[in-house]
Amino acid sequence: MKETLCENDAGGRTTSRRKFVRLAALGTLALGLASAASFPAFAQSSKTIAVSFPNSSKIGAVIISLDQAKKRAGELGYELVVDDPGSDMNKQINAIKTWIEQKVAVIVCNVPNPAAFETLAKQAREAGIYWITYGDRIENQDATVGYDQYNDGRKLGAYAGQWIKENLGGEAKVALLGFDLMIWGQARTKGIEEGLAEAAPKATIVAKQNAITPTEGLNVTRTILQANPEVNVILGVEDPATEGAYKAWVASGRDPKQEGIFIGGMDGTGPALTLLQQGDNVYKASMAIPLRRVGDAIAETAHELVTKGKAPDNIVPLELIASGSPLAAQYLAEQGGK
Q1: pLDDT in tens, 189-225
Q2: Which of 173, 199, 222, 296 is most buried (most C-beta within 10 Å)?
Q3: Tell me: the pLDDT tens digits for 78-131?
Q4: What is the pLDDT of residues 277-322, one digit of tens each?
Q5: What average pLDDT does range 54-75 have in this prediction?
Q6: Are 95 and 86 in contact (CB under 8 A)?
């Protein structure tokens, strides 16, 4: 059977329909290869774990965890990248949109406002990207990695309250260094307040300010002590802030070993653990994060999602470390300290 003639080539010769279809197919293939070559980020990002964590570069404990996550991710064959948008949620959202376009393998996100990230997380998952929520839960996610912010804060508040009952007759003037700009900060603050109120209902919170860095803790506490010199308990949602509070206490001329004073924070950073290890000063407690375990959990949960398509939540409990506890040395050693 003769083939139907349908096209002329450049030399005026005719080309059969079958040959023309073959040539067209080859052209389409070539075009597809050229298009793929123009988006190398897709191929490069297929083994990328992208972490969005507001203020991560300011929080010592988070820095250690994410450094460990990078190390563990590398061992598993991934590149882990971190973006710190500060407290700018729009900047954070834009960075995540870029990752969705690049087709990263997994997005790990600390969400300052969970509801605001639902649509974004849905878009990521529809694009074939796994979504891990750090330290919280949202509807559109594949897993949670982190810890129970409220309950860990409550443990610190309850311990401080029990200490107040045993050492101050149940009454105290309390300064609280929180961080209401982020959901995790709100949850920790609420936990501290409710744990304290249950254990020592007569303790009074006389000042409440945002602070998460040593400098912020120093400056805020200095101001609080000037306005409320009777403060004898300082609690914070971040150890770096309460480390600053300790410095403010000493800088104000107060005795670092004064009886009846309680300073306590959360995360278990090196300077806080050192003070707790010494055991003879006003720094009384920290809810310490097993920092490297959290870092491993980020990388390993991401790997499990990529290789198995699903993974359970990975919640790492914080551990209360009291003044003089041998646990202080153990956690300090984990961070490379002595």
Answers
A1: 999 999 999 999 999 999 999 999 999 999 999 999 9
A2: 296
A3: 999 999 999 999 999 999 999 999 999 999 999 988 889 999 999 999 999 999
A4: 999 999 999 999 898 899 999 999 999 999 999 999 999 989 999 9
A5: 91
A6: no
CB count, 10 Å around CB of 201? Answer: 12
175 Cβ contact partners less than 8 Å away, ≥ 6 residues apart: 205, 206, 207, 208, 209, 221, 224, 228, 231, 233, 234, 235, 245
Q: Dihedral through CA 102, CA 103, CA 104, CA 106, nearest 10?
A: 140
Give 276's contacts (C-beta < 8 A, 6+ positions apart). 283, 284, 285, 286, 321, 322, 323, 324, 325, 328
Query: Residue 135: how many CB atoms within 10 A of its CB?
Result: 22
- Pick from 17, 215, 237, 82: nearest CA to 149: 237
In sequence order, what are the residues at sequence separation of 6 or more whose Cβ sits closer than 8 angstroms to the Cβ of residue 62? 53, 55, 56
Global pTM reads 0.72
Spell out the residues 6+ positions from residue 332 whose beta carbon is closer than 8 angstroms to its own.
270, 273, 274, 277, 338
Only one residue has tokens 């409440």, namely 208
Whole-number average pLDDT of the chain: 87
Cβ neighbors of 137 (< 8 A, separation 6 or more) are 114, 144, 313
Nearest one of 148, 79, 113, 139 to 299, comparing CA atoms: 79
- Helix (H), strand (E) at residue 264: strand 262-267
Sequence length of the chain is 338
Task: Give the list of residues 6+ apart from residue 295 with CB closer than 8 angstroms, or none.
Answer: 64, 65, 66, 67, 68, 69, 70, 71, 72
